[in-house]
From TrEMBL:
Protein name: Putative 2-aminoethylphosphonate-binding periplasmic protein
Membrane-spanning segments: none
Keywords tagged on the record: Signal
GO cellular component assignments: outer membrane-bounded periplasmic space
Organism: Marinomonas spartinae
Record-level GO BP terms: thiamine transport
Length: 335
């Protein structure tokens, strides 16, 4: 066993012990944070139904991919979850395997790699996740332009767009809304420069708890996190799809190439795309990739369809190809 594997297994065991758990991991999933997209509930269900223990993992999409590349010759993880552009990059870098899980044929074309190296499990829409109480009487912003107003200084957060997929997706949404495209990110760069005057908070990892607490009153984030905060945690929050428009993007999973436990990896990937696994995503207010898993009762809790018409899909391959160029410009011109 490599030193890296020994260290990782010890770290995982230590994590389990400090969390009060009495087991070590059976399988490893990179970027499965319990506060994000109800991964906490999904991991519990996997443990209950499959008997597979998976420890939480708070990497973001970029950190997960970097780790897979670093461990290419001696993989530690079995499966990985990330934004679609990172799934495409992982396939290009040769760090994920080909596997077509159960319900593969029900995944719409364009939301899966033809070779099975990545496939969508659910999607979200970018907008404003707003803690209304933390606004101290200010109006809930309704547009990208609203966020540039001085009254919101120090109140806006967005995840680091050079590393976290939700941050990059937010940048793409801004760029598209102001006339940019995947070959021209100048509108987004100019927007972030203007937003910098409002002293935004830019974390690298999911900031769900920081919105609930009011530390970040307005976060560029997905609809599912806002709905979860409202309906599960009872917070006084609102989700806004900005007037200028937004985008809808999928999150995908892959089996890690030469995974330590490929059979367990297949069971996990089959499960998250099963009717039961997909229902759990729907109950967490994510759009399941298997459309039949969405119930009318859950649909009623979303914003009306008239609002969602402002959010469009994009060319995900072009989005992935443009990512590094945007990140470099952001670091050079904004950061």
């Amino acid at each position: 066993m490599s030193i890296l594997k020994q260290f990782t297994k010890l770290a995982v065991l230590s994590l389990g012990l400090t969390a009060g758990a009495s087991y070590a991991a059976d399988a490893i999933c990179y970027n499965c944070p319990p506060e994000w997209a109800n991964w906490g509930g999904q991991l519990q269900l996997i443990k209950k139904d499959l008997g597979i223990s998976i420890p939480m993992d708070n990497k973001n999409s970029g950190q997960a991919l970097s780790q897979l590349v670093a461990e290419k010759n001696s993989p530690v993880a079995d499966v990985v979850y990330y934004g679609v552009s990172f799934g495409i990059k992982a396939a290009e870098k040769g760090v994920v395997a080909s596997y077509k899980p159960k319900n593969w044929d029900k995944i719409p074309k364009g939301l899966k790699d033809p070779k099975g190296r990545w496939f969508a499990i659910h999607s979200g829409t970018i907008g404003f996740f707003v803690n209304k109480d933390a606004l101290d009487g200010r109006p809930v912003p309704q547009s990208w332009k609203d966020l540039l107003k001085p009254e919101y200084k120090g109140m806006i957060g967005y995840l680091d767009p050079t590393s976290a997929f939700v941050g990059y997706a937010s940048a793409v949404a801004i760029n598209q809304s102001f006339g940019g495209n995947m070959s021209n990110f100048t509108p987004a760069i100019n927007y972030f420069k203007k937003l910098a005057k409002n002293d935004p908070i830019v974390p690298k990892q999911t900031a769900y708890a920081r919105v609930i607490s009011g530390e970040i009153p307005i976060l560029l984030d997905y609809d599912f996190n806002a709905y979860r905060a409202k309906y599960k945690d009872g917070a006084n929050v609102q989700f806004v799809i900005p007037k200028e428009g937004s985008i809808v993007v999928p999150y995908v999973m892959s089996e890690v190439k030469n995974a330590p436990h490929p059979k367990l990896a297949h069971k996990i990937l089959d499960f998250v795309l099963s009717d039961k696994g997909q229902r759990l995503w729907a109950e967490a207010y994510l759009r399941p990739v298997i459309a039949s898993a969405m119930t009318p009762e859950i649909e009623k809790k979303f914003l009306p369809e008239s609002d969602y018409k402002r959010a469009k899909p994009v060319n995900f391959a072009k989005m992935a190809a443009a990512q590094n160029g945007f990140a470099q410009r952001y670091l050079n011109e904004v950061h």
